[in-house]
Design a protein that fits this description.
Length: 158
């Protein structure tokens, strides 16, 4: 019986994962950040669900309400960029949110080719309740990021 040779590719890969000094500190900080972020997202999903929202619908409502121009409305194209999803995916997400009464479409008065998406009273109510319930988690995430930044500053000064 012939035994298969050891996998050299695996040995090379393991060697490439070894890091030293400051690079290891960076890897640890990124791991801490990703862990804190994942915890925040996990809690956000549970809170959104309690208020009858899927994680994607919560994000949709948040991005509409928090539009950078402060108008609390946006377009599907802008949502596509913000959500990093394909246009047809965002269009379907908006269609479903319209169907259940969370958002509405409004034609632009300036340009008939443009349609804005804004929250209905029900969408605003559910987003506000979810957002309020996540206050402690947002503070905890901000504190975790601040700790990671402090560690980065300390490791650079040593």
């Amino acid at each position: 019986m012939v035994t298969a040779p050891a996998r050299p590719a695996m040995r090379v890969r393991l060697r490439s994962l070894r890091v030293k000094g400051r690079q290891l500190d960076d890897v640890i900080r990124v791991a801490e950040f990703r862990s804190a972020l994942r915890h925040f997202l996990s809690v956000s999903e549970r809170v959104a669900s309690r208020h009858g929202l899927t994680p994607q619908r919560y994000l949709l409502l948040l991005l509409i309400k928090g539009a950078p121009d402060r108008r609390q409305r946006t377009t599907v194209t802008e949502l596509t960029d913000s959500m990093q999803l394909a246009q047809h995916t965002v269009t379907e997400l908006v269609n479903r949110a319209v169907k259940v009464g969370l958002v509405r479409r409004e034609a632009s008065l300036d340009d008939r080719r443009v349609t804005y998406v804004s929250l209905t009273a029900e969408g605003d109510r559910r987003l506000s309740a979810s957002f309020r319930d996540l206050e402690v988690e947002r503070r905890a995430l901000a504190a975790a990021i601040a700790r990671i930044d402090r560690k980065k500053s300390q490791s650079r000064s040593s």
